[in-house]
């Protein structure tokens, strides 16, 4: 029989349920994801570092777990909240149950609570600090611990998820044998595996770099382009990355996704801010302002780029190179994409690589290749 478990929020509201993962005490920002599937990809996405994920779909775990769909080497989410965890799983690709996977990865999880009530509370009060516990079941004691746990605002979480040393993925020499190969530097702020797969699929050879790699080292590599990855935490806190990207603008083509989009925006002189409860799910409608088309996108972010009144940002120190908003979220009109064409840089807030989610935006990887082709490098 599963052990009693307690979910505590920083405002004092709590939910009693049952443990179905590892035993222990886990802290994080409590958020929700509206995807109906993809729980394995979500759990292993480094962007969820120090977050406790609530799945709004009520029945989770029914197709099990497999080794092919992980987005990193381990579970990064601090914990998981579901209405009902399925002990029975069935899929021709499955290699085990979600329950066993969580226990193996020492991830605390709670089921049997009213996830609809929890999500309604977060939508009203905003995402907040919380804890899942099988150890401390005293509400007063657990609340005190939650309120002592630090907020994500102002914290650099990238340094906790980035790689320690560079590595190459299918690095190819340019020449007659590989005329279409582009060697791309990837700043690893918490990169997902499928982003790397999508870059390789369009002919890019990759060198993945630690987030703190200097702009001088990037330039020494003779790369054809630079990719800025997704990642966790407050983008404004990653000051070294912002400064490095600022110094690389105009020197090689740049493409950013999610946190990479925010860092590019900050390097261009824009500002970021924390959303009330963020965008997390595989069904977010985004309008491409260039084509007028609407894309259904996969998203995971709690911060956003602040748009100026005229939908144009004037980069700090780069006034001759304006940047433009290229995509907006149709739910709340937040910024979902930007472009600095004279500097050969563009980015999107959402996840064109999906995993999980629709493939509407995969064209952006080809756009990056075309941008590199246009540089004549």
Description:
This protein has 377 residues and is of the alpha/beta class. The protein folds into 2 domains: 4-148, Carbamoyl-phosphate synthase small subunit, N-terminal domain (Glucose Oxidase, domain 1), CATH 3.50.30; 158-373, Rossmann fold. The chain has 10 helices and 20 strands. The strands form 3 sheets. Strands 10, 11, 12, 13, 14, 15, 16, 17, 18, 19 and 20 form an 11-stranded mixed sheet that branches. A hairpin with a 4-residue loop joins strand 19 (335-340) and strand 20. Helix 8 (239-248) crosses helix 9. The longest helix is centred in the N-terminal third of the chain and has 11 residues, at 115-125.
| Total helical segments | 10
Number of domains: 2
Class of the largest domain, according to the CATH hierarchy? Answer: Alpha Beta
What is the CA-atom radius of gyration, in angstroms? 21 Å
Query: Secondary-structure element sequence?
Result: EEEHEEEEHEHEHHEEHEHEHEHEEEEEEH
CATH third-tier fold name of the largest domain: Rossmann fold
Q: Give the low-pLDDT segments.
A: 313-318
Distance between the ends: 62 Å
Task: Determine the strand fraction and express it as a percent band.
Answer: 25-35%
Q: Please, what is the average pLDDT?
A: 92
**CATH architecture group name of the largest domain:** 3-Layer(aba) Sandwich
CATH superfamily of the largest domain: Class I glutamine amidotransferase (GATase) domain
Main beta sheet: strand number and arrangement? 11 strands, mixed
Classify the secondary structure makeup into a structural class: alpha/beta
Shape, please?
globular
Helix content: 10-25%
Q: State the total count of DSSP E strands.
A: 20
Oligomer: single chain
């Amino acid at each position: 029989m599963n052990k009693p478990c307690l979910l505590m929020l920083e405002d004092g509201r709590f939910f009693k349920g049952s443990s179905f993962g590892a035993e222990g005490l886990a802290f994080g920002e409590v958020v929700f994801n509206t995807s109906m599937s993809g729980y394995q990809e979500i759990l292993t996405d480094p962007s969820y570092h120090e977050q406790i994920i609530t799945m709004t779909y009520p029945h989770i775990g029914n197709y099990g777990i497999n080794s092919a769909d992980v987005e990193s080497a381990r579970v990064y989410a601090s914990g998981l909240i579901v209405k009902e965890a399925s002990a029975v799983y069935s899929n021709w690709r499955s290699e085990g149950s979600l329950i066993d996977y969580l226990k193996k990865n020492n991830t605390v999880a709670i089921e049997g609570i009213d996830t609809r009530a929890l999500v309604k509370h977060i939508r009203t009060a905003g995402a907040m600090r919380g804890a899942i516990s099988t150890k401390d079941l005293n509400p007063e004691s657990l609340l005190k611990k939650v309120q002592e746990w630090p907020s994500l605002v102002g914290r650099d979480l990238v340094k906790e998820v980035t790689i320690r040393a560079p590595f190459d993925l299918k690095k190819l020499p340019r020449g007659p044998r590989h005329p279409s190969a582009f060697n791309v530097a990837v700043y690893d702020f918490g990169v997902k595996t499928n982003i790397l797969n999508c870059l390789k699929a369009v002919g890019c050879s990759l060198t993945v770099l630690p987030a703190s790699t200097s702009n001088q080292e990037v330039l020494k590599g003779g790369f054809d382009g630079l990719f800025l990855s997704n990642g966790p935490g407050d983008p404004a806190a990653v000051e070294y990355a912002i400064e490095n990207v600022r110094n690389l603008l105009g020197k090689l083509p740049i493409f950013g996704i999610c946190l990479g989009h925010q860092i590019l925006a900050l390097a261009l002189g824009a500002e970021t801010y924390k959303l009330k409860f963020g965008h997390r799910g595989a069904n977010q409608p985004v309008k491409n302002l260039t084509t007028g088309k609407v894309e259904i996108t996969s998203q995971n972010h709690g911060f956003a780029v602040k748009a100026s009144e005229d939908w144009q940002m004037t980069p700090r120190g780069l006034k001759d190179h304006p940047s433009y908003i290229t995509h907006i979220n149709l739910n709340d009109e937040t910024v979902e994409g930007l472009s600095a064409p004279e500097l050969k840089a563009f980015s999107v807030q959402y996840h064109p690589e999906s995993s999980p989610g629709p493939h509407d935006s995969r064209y952006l990887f080809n756009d990056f290749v075309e941008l590199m082709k246009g540089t004549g490098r």
